[in-house]
């Protein structure tokens, strides 16, 4: 009995340490190695609040690492806060390691990494340097995607919602959900997927619109597994628009008096999903703001 208690205490302390440990990613280091495209999304039209999301596309051949810096809804404070170099210097992840995580996620030979998630909310924090000072994002969402183009008769396996197949036969979410209830509280893993909705011509470029079929199985915290659940992609530019319902929909049990509440009705949330409404990058789509 004593041995069992010691084991439990050890596991408890180990898990507590693992969950509290945070790693940092330097924006300058990413930009020195890879193409980084930054876009800004205005949240007012979709969520009814005057704030912004910063998106950073890190492009490495077929790999996209999307880092989203989300607004601080808790107390309406800035998205970034100053941090001392001494606090982060021993927990910095290299650009190569953070981008190649997608290979560990999708590779059948990396059995030890089977449990790696393709979407991480606040496990990693983005850090930027301005005027010789360092600033850390308060709320960072890291997502990994792998872009392919296979015709729909090729069975492209979906692993943790990471594959963006540009060659799918498009299906809109409203057509997919016809005759079905809305996404349930729980959806089995093998049914979760990213679907191509439509391909739109925009000047000399093509916009690929995607949406995610997934559940809302977490009731007391963020459904971070959904990530950017509706989004638009342009080759060479990365993800240029999206929605973050998992973040804006959840209201923490304990909030400050300055907490920003999203005042959408259940019907409005549902309509936004069915119509695949997203926020568009201000830098690329001023006409869609």
From TrEMBL:
Q: Which domain of life is it from?
A: Bacteria
Protein name stated in the entry? Uncharacterized protein
Organism annotation: Capnocytophaga canis
């Amino acid at each position: 009995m004593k041995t069992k208690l010691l084991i439990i205490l050890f596991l408890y302390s180990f898990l507590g340490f693992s969950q509290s440990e945070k790693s940092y990613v330097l924006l300058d280091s990413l930009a020195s190695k890879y193409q980084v495209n930054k876009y800004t999304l205005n949240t007012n039209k979709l969520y009814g609040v005057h704030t912004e999301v910063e998106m950073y596309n890190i492009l490495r051949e077929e790999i996209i690492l999307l880092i989203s810096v989300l607004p601080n809804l808790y107390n309406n404070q800035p998205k970034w806060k100053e941090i001392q170099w001494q606090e982060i210097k021993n927990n910095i992840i290299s650009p190569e390691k953070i981008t190649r995580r997608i290979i560990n996620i999708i590779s059948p030979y990396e059995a030890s990494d089977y449990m790696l998630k393709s979407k991480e909310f606040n496990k990693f924090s983005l850090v930027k340097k301005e005027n010789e000072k360092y600033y850390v994002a308060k709320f960072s969402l890291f997502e990994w995607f792998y872009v392919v183009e296979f015709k729909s008769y090729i069975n492209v396996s979906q692993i943790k919602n990471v594959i963006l197949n540009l060659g799918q036969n498009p299906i809109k979410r409203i057509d997919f959900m016809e005759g079905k209830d809305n996404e349930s509280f729980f959806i089995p893993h093998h049914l979760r997927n990213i679907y191509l909705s439509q391909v739109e011509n925009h000047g000399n470029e093509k916009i690929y619109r995607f949406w995610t079929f997934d559940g809302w199985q977490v009731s007391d915290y963020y459904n971070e597994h959904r990530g950017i659940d509706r989004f638009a992609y342009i080759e060479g530019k990365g993800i240029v628009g999206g929605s973050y319902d998992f973040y804006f929909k959840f209201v923490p049990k304990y909030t400050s008096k300055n907490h920003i509440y999203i005042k959408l009705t259940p019907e409005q949330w549902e309509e936004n999903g069915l119509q695949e409404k997203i926020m568009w990058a201000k830098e690329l789509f001023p006409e869609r703001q």
